[in-house]
Structures are given as structure tokens and as C-alpha cells.
């Protein structure tokens, strides 16, 4: 896509849009939570019943003679607020009366009753004017941050209620804690969702690379995502196509060479019939048979590599029991221990060839072969054991090399041509698995195959 950089679907643009969306959602959710929880977090004085309580106190003090009002006020006060009385005509009463006329109506406080005036002031953050501050200093003595409610009584005096802090509803620390918790949870939730969304194309690309590493015939990755990632995917697909073509051509060429070797081997055998020395003729035929076996094994290996079997579901334990039964029919019993049923997804014929090669090694080079199948979390583990002599740890990796044999004589009576483990590992790695070797403490060798569940 061509056009201005800010219109192109780039990683930088996605990050910028994500940050903008996160900030907007954080503010929206925080304000929404504050509105929804307003009555619970910061209820009004009327909603908490304070207005009715104050009204009852005012009515009580009006019924008391002026001389005894201060004593009565001290008696009705509690630890949350203080009650003071300003006598009619006093300096405090005159100042409060003037301040009440300057102040607009307060919706939080009950409406005037019986001609009473109401004065609501709060000394916090400059919310009170200079004149109102002087009134409070003169008539009340309230400190900064205080909440003040002054109510005029019928004889012209005033009853002043003073609270140093807002004691109704949650306190400031609790409100700040709730706001911080809401913001934190919102940021974490949106950030996790945004990070997951942004990293999804990269995860797909990583999975495609891993899949290609296990299976060179894997399908090409769809071109999607931001511009930078799409360019990387195109380059990866081009590289994958070239590697697949190279591997396919090489395999086809080697298979053709192995096939063409059959003709000269047949001619050598025919010419060997004219050798008069029986001993020399027998040696030549043995060598021809060994070469023929190597050619046949190589052809089978390359033919399997060229085949593209469809992935399907199958019963894994049944596949292993079939291999054990086949060897039992040949007079080589193979014990099976493990799960009775396990539905697995893969290429059953290829896996059967691979495990047949592993069991074949256990039969040829050891005795009392065993098969074990276990499922561990997200993996399937198959163990092929024998009670033979084992192999040196230095040869654990070498035995997987093509045509490698621990027994160097190349005598077919003591083993194959050295392609069994190579072919088995190729199939297992093509399924995203691995194969490792371990010498058993009780004697013998264990080949452990791990496959994705």
C-alpha cells in the first residue's frame, strides 16, 4: 500500500493507535466507575441522613433558652463534628448573616424552612472567598480543609456545625485507593489484550518458521500483518520455496542414481558366473549382495522422503501393538506397556516405519525388546528398550548419520546398512518431535521418542 506513512499499516502505527486507545479507555472506564460508584464512594449528606440529623439538632436547640444553648450544643455534638452557637446580635452572627446573603443556594443542603438561612462553606483549595474566611475565623474558628454548615435559628442566632474532614462516605485514602485499583486493573487488562493482539502476527510467523524447521514440505505462510512483517513473510516464503525445490531436486537425483546402480550390479553378477574359482565367485556375489542391499535401502529411504503422506488421526497404542504383533509372528516377542487408547494426529504410515526401524534395532542388537507409551502434559513419549550391551555415549549422535554402523564389517548378518535410525529421526523430526538415546543402568539401550500431543 502506498500513501502517507501514517496511513500505512506499520508496526509503529499499530503501537501508536494502541496507546491512544488504551489512554482513552482508561479515562472512560475510570470516569464510568466513578459515576457508577458515586453514591457508594462519595454519598451526599442528604443521602447519609446528616441533613435530617442536623435539622433535628437545630429544632432541639431552638427549644432551649438562649442562655443554655451552648451547653446543649456541646452535649449533642459527637466525635465527627462540633456544634457552636452564635448568639443573636453577636459579631459572629452578623458576619454569618452577611455571608449567607453572598453565597448561592447549596443543592446538597435541605431547603430553607420557617424562614431560616443556610450557609455552607468549605475551607479547602480556595473554595471559600476571603470574606467567608474572615467570617469563619471570627465566628467559628474552622481550620483549612474544614466543612462548615451554619443554620439560622428563629431568634436571629446561628448554630454552626464544623467537621475537620468529610466523615460521611469513604475517606480520601480509600477513594484514592479505589481509583488507583480501577486504573491499575484497567491498564493491565487493556495492555495484556493489546500486547496479545500486536504479537499475534509475530507468533504466527515464528510458528511457521518452527514448522518449516521440522517439516521442509510445510505450506507457505499467508501474507498478513503490518508492512514490515508482510515483507519478512514474503522473503521467508521465497526462501522456503527455494529450499524445498533444492531438497526435492537433490532427493530425486540421489534416488535416480541409486536406481541406475542396479543395472551395473546385475551385469557384475552375470559376469561373475564366468569366474571359475568358486571361492572368488562366492566373495564377489557377497559383495554384490551387500551393494544391492545398500542400493535398495537408499531407494526406500529416498522414496519415503519424496512421499507426502496426509496427516490424519489414528490410535497410537494400536499402531505400536501392531508392530509388536508383527515381530511376535516372526518369533521375536516384543512387550508393550502403556496406554490402551490415545487418539493422535500425524502420519501413521511414516510413524509406523520409524518405530519399526527402532524396534528392529532392538531385536537385532539386543534381546527382550520393550515398547512403552506414556502421555505427559502436552507431549507423547514412546520408549523402545532392549537388554543388550548398549552403545558408547560418544556414538549417541553418530548412529543417526546415514550409512553409519557401530559394527564396521558391513556384514548383513549383523545388521543393516545404517539408514534405519536416520530414516526414523527424519520422520520423528518431521512431526515436530525428537529422539534421544540412553544407556540403561540395568544394561541395554533406551531410545526415547517425544512427540507433541
TrEMBL record:
EC number from the UniProt entry: 2.7.13.3
| GO terms for cellular component | plasma membrane
Q: Which UniProt keywords apply?
A: ATP-binding, Cell inner membrane, Cell membrane, Kinase, Membrane, Nucleotide-binding, Phosphoprotein, Plasmid, Transferase, Transmembrane, Transmembrane helix, Two-component regulatory system
InterPro entries in UniProt: 2C_sensor_his_kinase (IPR050980), HAMP_dom (IPR003660), HATPase_C_sf (IPR036890), HATPase_dom (IPR003594), His_kinase_dom (IPR005467), HisK_dim/P_dom (IPR003661), HisK_dim/P_sf (IPR036097), Sig_transdc_His_kin-like_C (IPR004358)
Q: Name one Pfam family in it.
A: HATPase_c
| Compartment(s) of residence | Cell inner membrane
Q: Give all residue intervals belonging to the HAMP domain.
A: 196-248
Which domain of life does this protein belong to?
Bacteria
Instruction: Identify the main location.
Output: membrane
Q: Which Gene3D superfamilies does the record match to this protein?
A: 1.10.287.130, Histidine kinase-like ATPase, C-terminal domain
User: Which part of the chain is the Histidine kinase domain?
Assistant: 256-453
> What broad class of enzyme is this?
transferase
Q: Which reactions appear under catalytic activity for this entry?
A: ATP + protein L-histidine = ADP + protein N-phospho-L-histidine
Please give the start and end residues of each transmembrane region.
15-38, 180-198
Annotated membrane topology: Multi-pass membrane protein
Q: Which residues form a coiled coil?
A: none
Q: Name one GO molecular function term.
A: ATP binding
Q: Which SMART domains match?
A: HAMP, HATPase_c, HisKA
Name under which the protein is recorded: histidine kinase
Amino acid at each position: 500500500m502506498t500513501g502517507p506513512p501514517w496511513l500505512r499499516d506499520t508496526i509503529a502505527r499499530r503501537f501508536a493507535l494502541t496507546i491512544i486507545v488504551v489512554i482513552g479507555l482508561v479515562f472512560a472506564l475510570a470516569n464510568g466507575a466513578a459515576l457508577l460508584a458515586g453514591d457508594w464512594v462519595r454519598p451526599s449528606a442528604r443521602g447519609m441522613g446528616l441533613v435530617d440529623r442536623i435539622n433535628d439538632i437545630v429544632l432541639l436547640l431552638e427549644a432551649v433558652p438562649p442562655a443554655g444553648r451552648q451547653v446543649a450544643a456541646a452535649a449533642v455534638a459527637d466525635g465527627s463534628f462540633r456544634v457552636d452557637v452564635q448568639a443573636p446580635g453577636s459579631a459572629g452572627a452578623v458576619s454569618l448573616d452577611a455571608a449567607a446573603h453572598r453565597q448561592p443556594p447549596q443543592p446538597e443542603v435541605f431547603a430553607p424552612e420557617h424562614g431560616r438561612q443556610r450557609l455552607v462553606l468549605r475551607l479547602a483549595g480556595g473554595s471559600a472567598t476571603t470574606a467567608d474566611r474572615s467570617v469563619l475565623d471570627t465566628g467559628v474558628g474552622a481550620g483549612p480543609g474544614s466543612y462548615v454548615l451554619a443554620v439560622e435559628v428563629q431568634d436571629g442566632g446561628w448554630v454552626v456545625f464544623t467537621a475537620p474532614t468529610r466523615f460521611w462516605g469513604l475517606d480520601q485514602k480509600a477513594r484514592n485507593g479505589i481509583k488507583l485499583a480501577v486504573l491499575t486493573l484497567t491498564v493491565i487488562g487493556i495492555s495484556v489484550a493489546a500486547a496479545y493482539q500486536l504479537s499475534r502476527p509475530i507468533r504466527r510467523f515464528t510458528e511457521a518458521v518452527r514448522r518449516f524447521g521440522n517439516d521442509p514440505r510445510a505450506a507457505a505462510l499467508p501474507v498478513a500483518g503490518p508492512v514490515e512483517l508482510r515483507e519478512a513473510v514474503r522473503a521467508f516464503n521465497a526462501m522456503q520455496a527455494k529450499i524445498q525445490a533444492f531438497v526435492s531436486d537433490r532427493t530425486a537425483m540421489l534416488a535416480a542414481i541409486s536406481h541406475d546402480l542396479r543395472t551395473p550390479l546385475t551385469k557384475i553378477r552375470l559376469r561373475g558366473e564366468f569366474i571359475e574359482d568358486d571361492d572368488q565367485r562366492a566373495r564377489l556375489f557377497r559383495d554384490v549382495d551387500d551393494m544391492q542391499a545398500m542400493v535398495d535401502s537408499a531407494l526406500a529411504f529416498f522414496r519415503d522422503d519424496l512421499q507426502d503422506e496426509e496427516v490424519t488421526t489414528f490410535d497410537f497404542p494400536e499402531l505400536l501393538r501392531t508392530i509388536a504383533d508383527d515381530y511376535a509372528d516372526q518369533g521375536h516377542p516384543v512387550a508393550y506397556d502403556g496406554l490402551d487408547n490415545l487418539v493422535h494426529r500425524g502420519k501413521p504410515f511414516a510413524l509406523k516405519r520409524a518405530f519399526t526401524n527402532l524396534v528392529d534395532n532392538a531385536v537385532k542388537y539386543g534381546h527382550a525388546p520393550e515398547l512403552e507409551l506414556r502421555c505427559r502434559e502436552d507431549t507423547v513419549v514412546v520408549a523402545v528398550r532392549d537388554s543388550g550391551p548398549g552403545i558408547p555415549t560418544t556414538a549417541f549422535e553418530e548412529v543417526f548419520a546415514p550409512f553409519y554402523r557401530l559394527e564396521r564389517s558391513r556384514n548383513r548378518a549383523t545388521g543393516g546398512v545404517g539408514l534405519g535410525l536416520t530414516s526414523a529421526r527424519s520422520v520423528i523430526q518431521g512431526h515436530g518431535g525428537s529422539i534421544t538415546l540412553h544407556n540403561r543402568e540395568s544394561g541395554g539401550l533406551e531410545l526415547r521418542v517425544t512427540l507433541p500431543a
